[in-house]
Amino acid sequence: MTFQSTQDAFDAAFSTAALPAVLPAVILSVGALLMLLIEIVPGARASRPIVVLATLVGALFANFTQLSDPAGPVLDGIYASTPETAIWGMLFAAGALLAWVYSIGYYGEKARPFLAEHDMLFLSAPAGMTLMVCSQDLLMFFVGLELLSLPLYARAAFRRERHDSVEAGLKYFLLGAFAAATYLFGASLLYLATGTISVMELKMMMGDTITTTPVFLAGAGLLVAGIFFKISVFPFHMWVPDVYEGSPTPVTTLMATGTKAAAFGFLIPISFLLPTEATGLIAAIALLTMAAGNLGALVQTNIKRMLAYSGVAHAGTILLVIAGYLASGRDDAIGEQALHAALFYLAAYLFTSTGSFGLLAMLERDGEDLTTMRGIRGLARRRPAVAAAMTLFMLSLGGIPATGGFFGKWFVFTVLVQEGMYGVAILGALMSVVALGYYLRVIVNLWMEPLDEADTGRVAPVTLPAGIATAVCALGVLVLGLMPGWFLDLLG
Amino acid sequence: MSIPTEHILILASLLFSLGALGFLLRRNVIVVLASVELMLNAANLTFLAGSRAHSTSDALSMEGPVFSLFVILVAACEAAVGLALVIAFYRQKRTVDLEAATELKG
Amino acid sequence: MDNSLWLMPALPFLGSIVCGILHALTLRQRKADPSMDASAPGIGALAAPVAVLAMVGSFIVAVMAWSSLKGLDVAARAAGIESSVWHWIDLGPFAIDLSMVVDPLSAVMILVITGVGLLIHIYSSGYIKGDPGFAKFFAYLNLFVAMMLILVLSSNLVGLFVGWEGVGLCSYLLIGFWYDKGWPAEAGQKAFVVNRIGDACFLIGAFLLVRLFGTLDASDIAASVITLIDDPEKLGTMGLAALLLFGGACGKSAQFPLLVWLPDAMAGPTPVSALIHAATMVTAGVYLVVRLNPLFAAAPTVMLVIGIVGALTAFIGATSALRQTDIKKVLAYSTVSQLGYMFLGLATGAWAAAVFHLVTHAFFKGLLFLGSGSVIHGMHHEQDMTKMGGLKKHMPKTFLTFLAGAAALSGLPLMSGFFSKDEILFNAFGMHGAYYGLWAVGLVSAMLTAFYTWRMVALTFFGKERFDVDHVHPHESPATMWVPLAILAVASVFGGLLNLPAVISKHPILHTWLQPVTEKADAVFVATNHVHEHASHAVEWGLLGLGALVALVFSHLGFRRYKDAGPAPDTEDARRMPGLTGFLGAAWRLDGLYEAIILIPVRLIAQAISALIDKLVVDGAVNGAGAIARLIGDDTRKMTTGSVKSYAVWMGFGAAALSLLLIWI
Questions:
Q1: Higher pLDDT residue, C271 or A445?
Q2: Rounded to an integer, what distance in angstroms lies between the CA atom of residue C637 and that of residue B31?
């Protein structure tokens, strides 16, 4: 985008056509700023939940209007609104809303004065995620990424009187900054090689001799490596269990679902930067990720940590679609199919993962050991509804049919099989054999272990907000599993 | 006489590697933070070199400089968050040694 | 009929929910009244009538479906009776439409599932009485039946897979039913994991089918195979799909090399072994192959593989059963072996014969399991045959029915098992070539079958009482248990009438009934110039006679050898051939073998990799870089290996490797 005059640039930026497209991000940003103001205006604190709800529902609605009539590329092509981004945006808003609902009552008295600060995260994070998936150039993505990440680093350490929380925040921050620097250096190398940071322009250059120069390829590699950190694939995944375990569970919920989804939402459209020869490499990374996640999860006794490793394994599964896309010789139709597969997978994963982390958040209030395999023993006797919901989520994570998780895997493997990658598909399917082992352990502990009668009365009661959020998540998992066509119809 | 782009690229790469090495080797969190700044500045340098290489006499390639402005901005934000975290860490451990942050593992 | 088909799985499903609620109520009752005995059923006692009623309803619907299918003319039967369609996924070119179809094949299956299932439900109400999880047991059992019906009724492979996973889950829950005993839950996990290996194959096979046919509708696939057999590339892919689907079948039906889970699954309550691990679930693999028979018919190599696997499994199962002392283990290995026969039948294209054996096996093996359950019940949970003996006078009804089951299993002339096994062996003989070898293996396995069956009968019911007569008082089981046994005994004896050999009957009933299902595969056989030669009547008579002779001789040998056995019947053999006896007793040491060839290398590789990476990459990078850092004047007295750093080393290593690899390739 070389501007002939300043006038052109402003005309491009302030076109009224852009408004509906950027409205979701604007609503979320305004809400986040309001939330900060509430903190300092006396007597305004009571309106905190109203602001959160109004903002997130508003964003949900603003995205919804983009679904049927997307504005396409706006702001001189640096931002685009498509049916896919509208769905991403709705997922982010819904995910943030659910995670926020689970945070109600999670924190003790000490944290109460800072809750507005905490809630601001649940508005700035979806704003950042929305920018990430809508961005059409490398800079916009970076801004979205930082808008999401910076508050997240701080919120990971929100329970600052606790060692694990601060350590999680510090680890996440340091490694995140390292990854961001990697991304930036990659972006700068791409720019040096091609003279552009626009996704569209980069895409048009593919096939050029420029794109086979070492500078370009090194840039692509570093850029992708920076994003790999966010989606936590091997060997960029080690921080995940530590940070997930140490962070407050509602914050973990947001980290585990939206962050990953937003990074994938950008990575898949720009995966054309990778040469087709990298098919095997990406497939190998994906399989290693699945292996690392599944093997790590198998030995965990803390369920939060186990879910963290399981999230790593899921990221590996989704990464397979990129291998499929590259194997097709970067065919646009396959690219779209890959994006839709990932979108479906992550939608199902969002509901499943939010629900399971949320339930852990609810159980955690009464004591830490309730989120271990020991702690949930025989929970079904005391809280059958909680145990039933948790079972549903575990089955979905394991990819059992009639849950959303099944079709997520189904669509991913369809892409692979279409491209003739049978070996990869079989290895990937075998990994899910391993995965079921640890999901089942949760179910076994919930239902089949004898109850420890001495602990009676220790289990936290189900609060109304958490109950509603769990019901929504369970409904989401089942709707995606029983009527996947309905979701796919949204994409047209 | 202008400096060839390759030379700037080599300098930036060295700067980036130096920052990365500092990140990997130093135990002091403050120094680790400074190392990240070094890596970011390597990117800035490359952006500017790219802008110079791709500008013509009648059209400037502005993405590079704009990008590096954003990088500087974000670096400041990162420093703010990072130092806050370091203070919280120091309050608990009375040290800024990264080795002390190994409670979570496995 | 049509839409009332839904009732068939819906009734047991509802029953399952009601039983689950009853279980919860019982728990509450027990909590409210601590004086209540844990074995007192309380309100949970209602679970048995609820579950049995649900099964009765389901059975009635199944019979009605069968009779209305029978009313149709032969051409209409092939399409079957279809319920209304649920559009699960509609993606334009690819759609998943779920509906329930009763065609001749699924009609046979639903009659077996609901009929034998009903009997086993009735039996369970006596067997499981007094268990604290009484209502829960029926909830699982009913759920299983619902899932099994979904499996066989689904028109689409996705629906079939839902049932396929569902029955696996129920099997897992029921194997681990007595979780407080410790080991059963572990056995359940083994079953689940081995099954998942099969399921992975199944899924990939299904993906290939989507790719080939653009649909997963079973009848559409079966109908369009013949249109693709001229394309060699498509033919190859079809073969691969068939092989993968057979891999799935191997998992479910405990075929070599995935057979290790079934004997362990015997840890569950005995009615579960009878229903799931003998009569219904384990035959799902056979059902799958018959359902897609044209696909397999188009792949002769895969058929040969199936034949080899089947014969080998029959042999492994039969030999492993020879030395078991646990009565349920004998039956478990026997089931493995009989399933092998079914697959051998499939491999020869004798679809109807395989289904015939499936049906008779459901009768006689269900009967034997239930009979063994009656013995175990009467002996106060003793399963070791060396501690039984002489039970015929204590439990006459169980003894008589057990004799009928044993006669059928060992293939004594005119029993149901005689005809069904003979038809499979006859078909293998008729295939010539490599199949002569498979036939021979099958015949040897039949000898062994007769031997171990009568060994089991002799050890259990004849000879001296080897238990402590003063303390153990074996008793006959109540009517709820022996009446189902009697019904199954009649079916085991006369089941052969369903499909008499061609030399006796012009139109074998089952063969004719299944004609609409099998003719598509026969058409494929014709199109691939792979025509069956039918052996002459003389040969068939000869083989029938040979089968009868072998069964009689070896039954006699087995019986005579063990009818007066002492407390340790096999010590003489163990002394003379310690290696072989141990080998067979441990079922060819397959568990140990898998440990050696799979688990140990995986563990070693994992250790080697982690050691290598830790030493070379993490430590190496940190140490090496540390050395460089020292050179440039940095004072790092100690080498740092903090965890943030090791994560960062991994990331830095990853980013560098990624970039370099991209440049390099």
A1: C271
A2: 16
Dist. CA A102–CA A354, nearest whole Å: 9
Q: How far is CA C416 from CA C218, C356, C422, C458, C612, in A?
A: 30, 9, 10, 21, 61
Amino acid in position C115? G
Q: What CA–CA distance (Å, rounded) separates C40 from C19?
A: 16
**Three-state SS at A42:** coil
Whether the CB-CB separation of C356 and C513 falls below 8 Å is answered with no
Domains and CATH numbers, chain B: 5-102 (1.10.287.3510)
Cis omega (within 30 of 0) for bond into C257:
yes
Give the model's pLDDT for residue C648.
82
Give the minimum alpha-carbon distance from A423 to chain B in angstroms, rounded to a whole number: 31
Query: Domain extents for chain A?
Result: 7-273, 275-492
pLDDT of residue C622: 45
Half-sphere exposure of C658 toward its Cβ, with a 13 Å CA cutoff? Answer: 32
Residue by residue, what is the 3-state secondary structure of B10-62? HHHHHHHHHHHHHHHHCCEHHHHHHHHHHHHHHHHHHHHHHHHHHCCCCCCCC
Judge whether residue C625 has pLDDT over 50: no
Provide, for chain A, the percentages of residues in helix, strand and coil under a 3-state DSSP scheme, each rounded to the nearest 5.
80, 0, 20
Secondary structure class of C201 (helix, strand, coil):
helix
Burial of A300 (0-12, 13-18, 19+ CB in 10 A): buried
Q: Report the pLDDT value the prediction gives residue C111, as an integer from 0 to 100.
A: 92
Instruction: Tell me if chain C has a CB within 8 Å of the CB of A385.
Output: no
Running DSSP on this structure, what letter comes out for residue B97? B
Residue B24 contacts C where some CB pair is shorter than 8 Å: yes
pLDDT higher than threshold 60 for residue A454: no
Question: Which pair of structure tokens corresponds to residue C247?
Answer: 């891999």
Contact C114, C55 (CB under 8 A): yes
Across B75-83, average pLDDT = 92
Q: pLDDT tens for residues B1-22? A: 688 889 999 999 999 999 999 9
* B59: chain A residues, CB-CB within 8 Å: 2, 4
A422-447 vs A404-418: helix crossing angle, rounded to 10: 170
Per the CB < 8 A criterion, the answer to whether A189 and A218 are in contact is yes
Which residues fall within 8 angstroms of residue B35, CB to CB, at 6 or more apart?
B18, B19, B20, B21, B22, B23, B26
Minimal CA separation from C642 to chain B, in Å: 5
Mutation site for B-interface testing, chosen from C617, C618, C640, C653 by largest number of B Cβ within 10 Å: C640
Helix (H) or strand (E) holding C98: strand C94-98
Give the number of residues written for chain C.
665
C616: DSSP letter: I
Is A9 in the B-facing interface, judged by CB distances under 8 Å?
no
Determine the average pLDDT of the residues in A247-262. Answer: 92
**B21 in C contact zone (CB under 8 Å):** yes
Going by pLDDT thresholds of 50, 70 and 90, the confidence category of residue C628 is very low
Q: Which of B18, B21, B25, B103 to mutate to test the interface with C (most CBs of C within 10 A)?
A: B25
Taking the CA of residue A240 and the nearest CA in chain C, the distance in Å comes to 10
- In 10 A of CB C384, how many CB atoms? 15
Whether the bond between A235 and the residue before it is cis, its omega within 30 degrees of 0, is yes
CA atoms within 13 A on the CB side of A200: 12
Of the residues A434, A436, A441, the best mutation for testing chain C's interface (the one with the most C CB atoms within 10 Å of its CB) is A436
Nearest CA in chain A to B55: A195
pTM above 0.80, yes or no: no
- ipTM entry: 0.96
Q: Which of C292, C286, C294 is nearest to C313 (CA)?
A: C286
